[in-house]
Structure formats: structure tokens, C-alpha cells
């Protein structure tokens, strides 16, 4: 069975549209686009493991899109479609439930194969050359134009805007698809952006400023690497470090037994050197400490449930985040050192 045939079998079925843990806009919009394309033909549920990010949550609220956090009883579903991930380690606490799911699964993703790949028996639509998973969903839905309505087009446009970082990372196909869905949506670009735009509140501004104050600054040859421990808004903090001049930045926080790290890299650096936060940093971090990581060359993240995790045993003093951030810096430096064949490559921390 091919992916198009799989979609044609959804009629009358109970289907789970599953994002990765901490769903971002591309992941949520991919699921939501499928929801609006097939909602009159099947009984569809959007499932989001563990938590949803603020931008995706705002979009869901503004468009009235229903979803369930960490859905239970997966046996009640006849089919599952996994979007924007291809590895069990991107599901957090929901991984065992999907591993036990014995019914047909379709995987739609634009990431390279993860550490714990979803069953080879699953149908797979994977293309790492795509900027966003929404582009892959467009390819599938555009084969039958009746599925590509205005609601679907708005969602696909939103996912593409976010994962292309406002088109700073985009292929010719990205612009072609964006032109088509924008026209179909009947909305302007600013109108679509307003659906997921989250205005920084006072607490976020304070967190970002504290992140700058706590920053540890390193020099790896001519590149500036930064790590900072912040209690919340890790993604905003890491992005702010890049805007302040860092080439690569990591912002992490540890709270209530849960640890998160967001990584950001300068797009020019990524294109010039081939550096990839997901492949060269967070995959190694997940192997060493447990947990799961994923994302893109210039924007990626890592999550770990600290409580009871054997990989971080002996760190009951709340210092786990320091160790993880230090390792992020070391792995980043190791990549650049290898690229320069070790010639004059030193990691220097500024006081």
C-alpha cells in the first residue's frame, strides 16, 4: 500500500494524528491540515504527547482546533499518522504506547532517521530535503485537490513560515508551495503570522535578560559559543543569544524533574560549515544522558525526565543542567575542531 492509498482507506475509521512531544507549529499544523482535509470522512483525533509549544497553542486557540494531550487507550484507534517525527524517542512518555500499537501507521516527516526508528512495517514519507513537514503534507493532499481547501492551506502556510524561519532557510519548492497555499488560503502573510505570533510578556522578557546575565561565553577558533541556564523560555533565550552575536547558543532549564535545552545556530554558519545541532550535538547528548532530542541544523532541542533516570544518577544537586550544557559546548567545539583537522583549534572560556 502506498501513502495515497493509505489516506484513501481512512473513511469511517478512527484515526490518531500524532505529533512529536512538545509539538511546534510545523508538527501541529501538519496534523491539523490532515484533520481539516479528512474530518468529514473519518473520526479524527489530534494527539500531542506531553506538551505543546506556545506558538502552536496560540494557533490552535485562534483557529479552534481540538487536540488531546498525551492521549490514552491507543487500541481504540484503527490507524495512526505520525507527523514531523520518525523515531520513538521523539514521543517522550508516549513511546511505549505507540510501540505497542499493532495497526497501520503512516509516518510523514522531513527529518533524517532518528535513533529509535518507528517500525520498518510502517509506511514512510520521509524527505530531509524538505524545509517543513507541511510541504510533504501538501504533496500528498494536492494529488486530490478536493482535500486542499482554505482551512488546510492556512495551516500549511503557517507551518512552512515557521520551519523556514521566515524563508531564511528555503528551497525553490518551498516558495512554489507557499505561493499556492497562500493564494488558496485567501489570507495575507501577516494575517497568517498573527495566528501563531505570541507577544513576549514580562516574565519572558525577564527570563531572556537573566539568560544574558548568566551566559557562559566560549571561543572556538573564530566562533562564539554561548550556554546559559534559564528557568523558562529556553527557545527565546537561545534565539536572543544569536541576535546578540553568538554563533551557536544553548539555553537550558531544569524544573520539577524535567530538563529542557534549546539550541540555536547562525544560519550563515550552518550553510558554510555543515554544522547541524540535531545531528552533531543533541543526538550525542541523548545517547549519553538519555532522553530525546531533535530538530533542524539551526534550531533543535533536547528533553529529559531527570527523576529516576540512571544516566544522570549522582546528580541530585540540581547540577544536571550544567553538565548537559557543558557537554553541548564540548560537542559543538569537537565538530569544528574536526572540520579544521585540529589545527589551532582551542576552546577558551571568557571570564
From TrEMBL:
Origin: domain of life: Archaea
DDH domain location: 14-160
The protein, known as: DHH family phosphoesterase
